[in-house]
Design brief:
The chain is mainly alpha-helical. The chain contains 7 helices and no strands. The termini are far apart.
């Protein structure tokens, strides 16, 4: 009698954490900072040309800043990971028996019997000792390793994608630049919060409301500052 075998594989979302965090942060910052900038300049009584110049300058500066910040931050994380791997490789070379015992105890702590934990530790050590210790002792695997260029690129591209939205809105709104830009920004932030939560598997409504609320606060402050500057000048 033939037994049909099938594999059931779940789609886990935590492996998206690195690029998703950078992309969501970049897009959110792009929409909010650019919108706050153009709304503030508009509230100060400037014309469309001045508003767009300020907005485009903010887009370029913001994208470069986000990319540089992500690259430096994630590079530091990568350096720490590589230092841990180097230490582990040295320990495996100098103290293989102690490292095998350490691995055995890790599997015992996860519920295996002493005998079975030892067999698993030996088998995995013979297969790839460093990768095994990196995964089960340090908590590093290929899916979650720091990738500076990926994070920087995702963040910069997301920032530009977000920043374009208020620029288009302010250019197309005519005499209603401020309310239209604010409205478009809040809708964009709410949609971004919803999408980011949905991709990551979190409750979308809560994330959407949280992001939109901060957008309302930022817009209100930007308008107030713009009005005060216009009055002072």
């Amino acid at each position: 009698m033939l037994v049909s075998r099938s594999w059931h594989q779940e789609a886990h979302r935590s492996q998206r954490g690195g690029w998703l965090r950078a992309a969501v942060l970049g897009a959110n910052d792009g929409i909010l900072s650019t919108s706050a900038l153009v709304v503030g300049v508009a509230a100060a009584g400037q014309g469309l040309t001045e508003i767009l110049i300020a907005g485009i300058a903010g887009l370029v500066a913001g994208a470069l800043s986000m990319a540089a910040g992500e690259y430096v931050s994630v590079s530091s994380q990568k350096d720490a990971e590589e230092a841990d791997l180097a230490t582990e490789a040295r320990e495996l070379e100098q103290h293989p028996a102690e490292e095998l015992e350490e691995l055995t105890r890790i599997y015992e702590d996860r519920g295996l019997s002493r005998a079975l934990a030892g067999e698993v530790a030996v088998a995995l050590t013979e297969s790839d000792a460093l990768a095994t210790h990196a995964r089960d002792e340090i908590g590093l695997d290929d899916l979650r390793r720091a990738r500076p260029l990926q994070a920087a690129g995702a963040s910069a591209l997301a920032f530009v994608s977000g920043a374009i939205i208020p620029l288009i809105a302010v250019a197309a709104a005519g005499g209603a630049r401020i309310p239209v830009t604010i409205g478009v920004t809040i809708v964009g932030l709410a949609a971004l919060g919803w999408a980011g939560a949905a991709i990551g598997g979190a409750p979308p409504m809560r994330a959407s409301m949280r992001v939109a609320s901060w957008g309302v606060i930022a817009m209100a402050i930007s308008v107030a500052v713009g009005v005060l500057v216009d009055a002072a000048l």
